[in-house]
Design goal:
Elements (H helix, E strand, L loop, with lengths): L7 H4 L12 H17 L3 E5 L5 E5 H10 L3 E2 L3 E2 L6 H29 L4 H29 L9 H22 L2 H24 L4 H6 L4 H24 L6 H24 L5 H32 L13 E6 L14 E6 L6 E2 L9 H4 L5 H4 L3 H12 L19 H9 L1 H4 L5 H14 L1
Antiparallel strand pairs: 1-2, 3-4, 5-6, 6-7
Helix pairs in contact: 2-4, 2-5, 2-6, 4-5, 5-6, 5-7, 6-7, 7-9, 7-11, 9-10, 10-11, 15-17
Length: about 450
């Protein structure tokens, strides 16, 4: 016996509980990045010793030398360089690099065994390692430029590690914020240029820093240190902010403050009579790049404002009148003879219901016919009335997918179509009538 076709919506089983995300890709990237960080410890990098003597040595050997060093700052922290201000800065950059690699490896290992938190852990690891390697590479450039007896040096391997971390961080940005990652990455590059220009402005001329420190004017020294600290904080905040889409107004304020700071730096060259062309040039570069950042974020704000806050509001669409039909109960049994009358009722939104009289429309006898119908015999008087309203008079709206019901004839196609499109018209069919139609369909198929 052939069963009636069912609507596709009825074949859909209740959804099972969603499986926990495994984040296999993030965990594999975490393992790979941990291997890169560990391998970096065995590569030769530039390091400063006493009297700023530069040498190349593996990081793990440098750590052993630091532990064995007798020179200490703050009374307990061993360093390879002296206790001067530049020496402390070089040691701080080295400690930051070691700590960043250690933290990055630990976070990557935790990400391997924590599937749910692996994306956030990997993003944090990439950020920390990139910042540590970039700061160390920048310190090598700045200190070698400051030392008169040294040529400007670039630590290749720390730059490579910073580049690898930045590439991973950018890939994670794309996965999290989409195409906005391109603009965020551009802002990180610009903030790096601003920070590097501010630092090079101070250390490029070897005698400039000593002249500033021995000028005896504490206000100018504080201003200069504030500019450097502001540039570094701006870079860190830009990198952290790159994982979000919001906060453009805050970004605009930061870049404006950085522009003002760079302009103040340019003025310090003339106020303090430093007579340094390099200082002025680098500060101008920092100011120009900050201006570019302001323009970019202003354009972003304008585009988002036009997208989410259009000036012209769309006019509301007119509400169409809904037509309801009221039918008299069908009381013909077993041969339907009496015809249901119908009248339209117009219901407008936010207005009282009014009944509009219309000419009484009688259904022709040929539409139903005076024939014996086995299905109609199974229905109660109420169910007959419901069936006639739905499928003969169609008081509740047309059903173009369902063929006409012919009283007393073969209606197998009619019953099959009802269950094929049951999901579309289910809310119109009373439960009792639906059960009777299903039982009758099972008998005739």
């Amino acid at each position: 016996m052939r069963r009636p076709k069912k609507n596709k919506a009825e074949n859909i089983l209740p959804t099972e509980p969603a499986q926990k995300k495994q984040n296999v890709g993030y965990r594999l990237l975490a393992a790979l990045f941990a291997v890169v960080c560990i391998g970096f410890c065995f590569l030769p990098i530039h390091v400063f010793g006493k009297a700023f003597a530069m040498q190349e040595q593996a990081l793990w050997k440098i750590v052993i030398d630091i532990v064995k060093s007798d020179t200490k700052i703050f009374g307990f922290l061993p360093v390879l360089t002296g206790t001067s201000t530049i020496g402390i800065g070089a040691s701080a950059a080295l400690y930051l690099l070691v700590a960043a690699i250690l933290v990055g490896v630990v976070l990557c290992i935790i990400a391997l065994f924590t599937a749910k938190k692996s994306p956030a852990l990997l993003r944090t690891a990439a950020f920390v390692v990139t910042v540590g390697a970039a700061v160390y590479a920048l310190s090598v450039v700045c200190i070698s430029a400051y030392a008169a007896k040294l040529a400007v040096k670039f630590d290749v391997w720390s730059l490579v590690l910073a580049g690898a971390g930045a590439a991973l961080y950018f890939a994670l940005m794309l996965a999290k914020v989409g195409n906005v990652a391109w603009l965020n990455a551009m802002q990180i590059v610009f903030s790096t240029l601003v920070c590097g220009a501010a630092m090079l402005a101070v250390v490029y001329d070897g005698h400039l820093l000593s002249k500033i420190m021995h000028s005896g004017k504490l206000v100018y020294e504080i201003l200069l240190l504030a500019i450097l600290a502001l540039a570094l904080c701006n870079l860190l905040i830009t990198a952290i902010r790159a994982m979000t889409k919001k906060g453009l107004v805050f970004d605009l304020c930061r870049y404006i403050v950085m522009l003002v700071a760079a302009v103040v730096g340019c003025c310090l060259n003339y106020i303090m009579k430093l007579d340094s062309k390099a200082f002025t040039l680098f500060m101008i570069v920092a100011a120009a790049v900050s201006l570019v950042q302001i323009v970019i974020v202003s354009v972003e704000l304008r585009c988002r404002c036009n997208k989410h806050c259009p000036h012209k509001e769309k006019a509301p669409k007119p509400v169409k009148a809904r037509e309801e039909r009221v039918a008299r109960p069908y009381d013909g049994a077993p041969v339907p003879v009496n015809m249901a009358k119908e009248r339209p009722v117009v219901a407008a939104q936010a207005a009282p219901k009014t009944t509009v009289s219309a000419p009484v429309t009688n259904v022709e006898p040929s539409q139903i016919g005076n024939k014996f119908d086995p299905f109609m015999m199974t229905l109660t008087d109420e169910e007959k009335s419901q069936f006639v309203d739905l499928y003969i008079l169609k008081c509740n709206g047309p059903m173009p997918e369902i063929p006409a019901y012919n009283v007393g004839e073969d209606n197998r196609q009619f019953f099959n179509k009802i269950f094929i499109y049951l999901g579309q018209y289910r809310e119109k069919i009373p439960d009792g009538l639906l059960a009777k139609m299903y039982q009758f369909t099972m008998k005739i198929n």
